[in-house]
User: Fold this.
Amino acid sequence: MAESKTKKSNSILKRQRQTIKHNLRNKDIRSALRTDLKKFSAKLSDKVEAKDISYIHSVIDKARTKGILKKNSASRKKAIAAAAYAKHSQPKQPDTSTKSS
Assistant:
């Protein structure tokens, strides 16, 4: 008896092509997100502007809408970025508490 190989249907081949495309797109978006987050955290020590935090929020939201991040992960990353921005954007005030001896 001769072995018969089954031919892959066109729908299977199309799904494989789509999966490869989607994986590459997701990888690019995830990589860009990580890069932007690292740049933002490195910029915190210098000078951070309000446009920086809004840019980070938009990048995280884009990753969320594309399905790269889940809802709570996106919220957590935005909250961490906002807290870091708030901590580093406030000018340092001298300690005004007086010690009475």
User: Anything to note?
Assistant: Residues 14-88 form a domain with the Methane Monooxygenase Hydroxylase; Chain G, domain 1 fold (CATH 1.20.58.110). The radius of gyration is 24 Å.
